C-alpha cells in the first residue's frame, strides 16, 4: 500500500511539473489592433507571444513589448544591442551597411512618410490556460486593456533617424512603416520591456467585443 501511495505521489509530482513547464511556455494570447504590422499580420489576427531570454532575440523577430507609460506594442526587432542604426532615404543602415528587409511589402526599404497610427494593442490575454476577453473602444485614438487606457500616438514625421544602441537595447520597427509608432518615435526598447516573441498565429479577425 505504501509503495502504491509513493507511486501515485510520484505521478502527481510529474504532472505538476509538466503543467508548470507548459504554463511557462504557453505565453500570452493577443489580438492585433491596427495596421502597423501589415501585410504580414492583419488587424484582428490572433497571436501568441512566448516569454524568452532577451539574449535569444534575433534580428527580424516579431515581439510584444511595453513602454514605460503602459502602452503595449507589437512590432519587429531590427537593431540589436551595440549597433548603430540610421534611416536615410528610405533605407535602414546597421553599422553603415544597408539592411535587407524581405518582410516589407515594398522590398528592403522603409517608407519616408508621417506615422499616423499603428499601436497593436492586445485585446485578449491568456494565462494559466484561460483566455480573458478585453474590450476595445470604437475610438480611433485609444483602446482599453484591463480597464486602463492605451493611447494611440499622434502622427510624427520621422524620415531620418539615428540611434546608438546600448547594452540591452533594441531598435524596433513596424512592418507597415507609413503607419507605425515605433523606435523612430519612442526610441530604443530595453530588454526588460520585451514581453515575448511572437511564435504562434491564427488567421482570424475580430467581429465585435
Name the CATH architecture: Ribbon
Distance between the first and last residues' Cα: 54 Å
**SSE class:** alpha+beta
- Approximate helicity band: 10-25%
pLDDT below 50 for ≥5 consecutive residues: which ranges?
Answer: 8-24, 107-157, 205-209
Give me the number of helical elements. 2
- The total domain count is 1
Tell me the series of helices and strands, N- to C-terminal.
Answer: HEEEEEEEEEEEEEHEE
Rg over CA atoms, rounded to whole Å, is 20 Å
What can you see in these coordinates?
- The chain has a single domain, classed as Ribbon (Umud Fragment, subunit A), CATH 2.10.109.
- Helix content is 14%, strand content 33%.
- The strands form 4 sheets. Strands 1-2-15-3-4-13-14 form a 7-stranded antiparallel β-sheet.
- With 209 residues, the chain is α+β, with helices and mostly antiparallel strands.
- A hairpin with a 2-residue loop joins strand 8 and strand 9 (130-133).
Short précis:
The chain is an alpha+beta fold. Helix content is 14%, strand content 33%.
Task: Summarize the helices and strands and which ones pair or pack.
Layout: H1 2-26, E1 28-31, E2 46-50, E3 62-66, E4 72-79, E5 84-88, E6 91-94, E7 97-98, E8 124-127, E9 130-133, E10 142-145, E11 148-151, E12 161-164, E13 169-173, H2 183-186, E14 189-190, E15 194-202
Antiparallel strand pairs: 1-2, 2-15, 3-4, 3-15, 4-13, 5-6, 5-12, 6-7, 8-9, 10-11, 13-14
Amino acid at each position: 500500500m505504501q509503495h502504491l501511495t509513493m507511486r501515485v505521489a510520484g505521478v502527481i509530482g510529474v504532472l505538476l511539473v509538466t503543467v508548470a513547464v507548459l504554463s511557462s511556455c504557453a505565453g500570452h494570447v493577443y489580438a492585433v489592433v491596427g495596421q502597423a504590422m501589415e501585410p504580414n499580420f492583419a488587424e484582428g489576427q490572433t497571436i501568441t507571444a512566448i516569454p524568452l531570454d532577451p539574449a535569444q532575440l534575433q534580428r527580424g523577430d516579431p515581439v510584444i513589448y511595453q513602454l514605460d507609460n503602459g502602452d503595449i506594442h507589437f512590432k519587429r526587432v531590427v537593431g540589436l544591442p551595440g549597433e548603430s542604426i540610421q534611416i536615410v532615404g528610405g533605407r535602414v543602415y546597421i553599422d553603415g551597411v544597408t539592411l535587407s528587409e524581405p518582410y516589407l511589402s515594398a522590398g528592403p526599404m522603409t517608407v519616408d512618410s508621417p506615422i499616423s497610427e499603428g499601436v497593436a494593442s492586445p485585446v485578449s490575454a491568456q494565462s494559466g490556460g484561460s483566455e480573458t476577453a478585453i474590450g476595445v473602444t470604437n475610438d480611433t485614438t485609444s483602446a482599453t486593456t484591463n480597464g486602463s487606457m492605451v493611447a494611440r500616438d499622434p502622427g510624427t514625421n520621422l524620415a531620418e533617424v539615428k540611434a546608438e544602441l546600448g547594452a540591452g537595447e533594441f531598435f524596433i520597427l513596424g512592418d507597415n512603416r507609413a503607419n507605425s509608432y515605433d523606435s523612430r518615435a519612442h526610441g530604443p526598447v530595453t530588454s526588460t520591456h520585451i514581453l515575448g516573441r511572437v511564435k504562434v498565429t491564427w488567421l482570424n479577425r475580430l467581429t465585435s467585443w
